[in-house]
Please model this.
Amino acid sequence: MKATLVIENISKLITLKGENRPRVGKEMREIGLIENGIVAVDGDKIIYVGEGNLPSHIEVNDDTVFIDGTGKTVTPGLIDSHTHLVHGGSRENELSMKLKGVDYLEILKKGGGIHSTVKATKEATFQELYKKAKKSLDIMLSYGVTTVEAKSGYGIEDFDVELKQMKVAKKLDEDHPVDVISTFMGAHAIPEKYENDPDKFVDIIIKEMIPEVSKKGFAKFCDVFCEEGVFSIEQSRNILEAGKKYGLIPKIHADEIKPLGGAELAADIGCITADHLVAASEEGMKRMAEEKVIANLLPGTSFNLQSGNFAKARKLIEIGVPVSLSTDYNPGSCPTENLQLIMSFASLIMKMTPEEVITAVTINGACSLGLEIEKGSIEEGKKADLVIFDAPNLNYIIYHFGINHVEKVVKDGIVIK
Model:
């Protein structure tokens, strides 16, 4: 076997080696650390992971690229498994309202929030959306993210805009080094014209939108904002069950603001993830643990909304719920592409250990997108998505917050940054 790339003398190599499944409980602290590690890559695949020098069966030549990992920490490529990547406009004008204590649902009633983004996304051309989202992907990549989930949801009743968002995501997946995984989220808000008859809009999503999304192959997942004033438990159930019938894997924005029962619904339906969970009940958490629904936590949103409430990460981990972490990058409630900052929030605010944090943004992130066979850990046969941090250890990455620790990103075996 010939290596096209070798990273050697790695001070701290975090492999996350193990079974290709979500890690739970104490497993989230087992990160497969190797000191004085070495990784060899052939093309876009990892062919060797170990300690010390390369074994004799791995050949190198003048064309092999060598990188010195002395003093560095190397991890799998980071996975941001909950974003609203493709959208028009921004919402910095809402900052003054937030500073005065106006909550998200009230901003929504005033015509702000998602409604203003829907307008901006509708007015933006394909090329404008592409350019804006590409800029965000470039930033994400610079912070070590190699795979991103991207939701639609800013067209709502205008299905052409929903399709435009997903087409942009598809084109970015084809063009950009970062892998973009698409989620259909037509059920992001109730359009104003259906406020008095939301079930009619639910019927449109189920009977018209979902079948077309499935037919065109534009999305892997179906998501819904299950929340007071948005989609009820029963409406959310109907939408996600319809998505399942058409091959779309269910995800759910659950119990972000009110304890509506979204966590319980996620367990009942068999969602791959339930996201947010700030107000999730203990019963809902237990049901998620039983069904191995991944809790995708978004501390950046709680931080930005300044609600004072964060998901109970420690409780979720202790009762056996697998946890992943994401930015929730979007123009309103969490306008940041910096997953490293989210990692620090998860540790400093939600009290996750650094080991639990790196598990959450690698192998558990991969599991939350159904990609654990090829991503999320540094093992032979997996994609060569790697991050070289200019940091002596994992704790330093979390502790020294607010900056970018990435020195190089390897995507599909190619040194990108």
